[in-house]
Write a structure and sequence with these properties.
Helix 1 links the parallel strand 1 and strand 2. The model has no long low-confidence stretch (mean pLDDT 95). 23% of the residues are buried. The chain has 3 helices and 4 strands, in the order βαβαββα. It has a single domain, classed as 3-Layer(aba) Sandwich (Glutaredoxin), CATH 3.40.30. Pfam families: GST_N_3.
Length: 79
């Protein structure tokens, strides 16, 4: 799987990104993260910060956070 979304269950920003990926018909894997920022070591390792959502596009070598940026990327590059 070349797309991975780090998300928190119930996070509206994560849901917006997930919905955009679904609407674009893009296959992706969701990595559910812990609610505590201090327990998000994997997110920090891949993105340099602990916030979600984070999208990893291995095929294109892209790692990004901030839902607005991700939504733009999905629309521009993946849809």
């Amino acid at each position: 799987m070349s797309l991975r979304l780090y998300a928190l269950d119930g996070c509206p920003y994560c849901e917006n990104v997930s919905d955009a990926l679904d609407e674009a018909g893009v296959a992706y894997e969701t990595e559910w993260v812990d609610a505590l920022h201090s327990d998000r070591d994997e997110v920090k390792r891949v993105s340099g910060q602990r916030g979600v959502p984070v999208l990893i596009d291995e095929e294109r070598g892209v790692t990004m956070s901030e839902s607005a940026n991700i939504l733009e990327y999905v629309e521009r590059s993946l849809a």
